[in-house]
Design a protein that fits this description.
- The chain is built from 2 helices and 9 strands, in the order αβββββββββα.
- It is mainly beta.
- It has one domain (17-131): Immunoglobulin-like (Sandwich), CATH 2.60.40.1930.
- The longest helix has 15 residues, at 2-16.
- It is globular and about 55 Å long.
- The model is unreliable at 1-17 (pLDDT under 50).
């Protein structure tokens, strides 16, 4: 009987630590992201979480930035969302970002405010490109 109690207790704890955040972002048709672009960040979570969404820059100095990135802009924090899908539109700032640098989006979630359990996901890194206006011949229908 004790084994069943211990096993079910361990199963309950392991279930708590299995929350998942799937995070993606849109790119241009050629796979690039340019300064000034409107990017749609999408996620799916499998339980209610308090979320924080940030635009981040990749940093190789892991002593100063232990996660390997530093926040450029936090869109929101402490937003409690139920399990399911969500999305947010973000305009890449043209002043704070540099061409050739790697950037991404970081979504962090906690199950409850005082909980030590934290879940997060980072999109794939993307290189920032300078926006160039389309050529006249590309605008013709």
């Amino acid at each position: 009987m004790k084994f069943v109690t211990i096993a079910s207790g361990l199963l309950g704890v392991s279930t708590l630590s299995q929350a998942a955040i799937n995070l993606t972002h849109s790119t241009n048709t050629d796979g690039t992201v340019n300064k000034g672009d409107f990017v749609r960040i999408s996620w799916e979570i499998d339980e209610t979480l308090d979320l924080m969404l940030s635009f981040v820059k990749k940093e190789d100095d892991t002593k100063k930035w232990p996660l390997g990135h530093r926040p450029i802009y936090t869109m929101w924090g402490g937003l409690r969302l139920d399990e399911g899908k969500g999305s947010f539109g973000y305009n890449i700032p043209s002043g704070k970002v540099k061409e050739g640098q790697l950037y991404g989006f970081y979504l962090e979630g906690k199950t409850i405010e005082e909980s030590p359990l934290e879940f997060n996901n980072l999109t794939e890194w993307f290189e920032m490109h300078k926006w160039t206006p389309p050529k006249k011949e590309d605008l013709k229908l």
